[in-house]
Design brief:
Structural class: alpha+beta
Distance between the termini: 53 Å
Shape: elongated
Strand order of the largest sheet: 1-2
Helix content: 40-55%
Largest sheet: 2 strands, antiparallel
Number of helices: 3
Order of helices and strands: EEHEEHH
CATH architecture: Ribbon
Number of domains: 1
CATH class: Mainly Beta
CATH topology: Pemi-like Protein 1, Chain: D
Oligomer: single chain
Amino acid sequence: MFALKLTQIGNSVGVVLPKELLGLLHVEKGDTLYATQSPSGVSLTPYDPAVEEQLAQGREFMREYRDTFHALAK
C-alpha cells in the first residue's frame, strides 16, 4: 500500500508517486497513466483501456475469419 500526497500545481492538484510505485507500474517521468473505475475503487494503469478494447475486437475478428486469413497467407 502506498500513501499518495496531493500537491498544488498552479490551478490544479497533482499526485506525488513514490519511486517504488513507479517501478511497479513500469513508468517514468513523462509517461501517461490511466485511471479507471473498478469495483474496488480506482485503478491506475499505464495501458489505455480503449486500445485494449480495440485489440480484443481485432482478436475476435481474426479468430472469426481464421480460415480466410490462412488462405490469404498462401
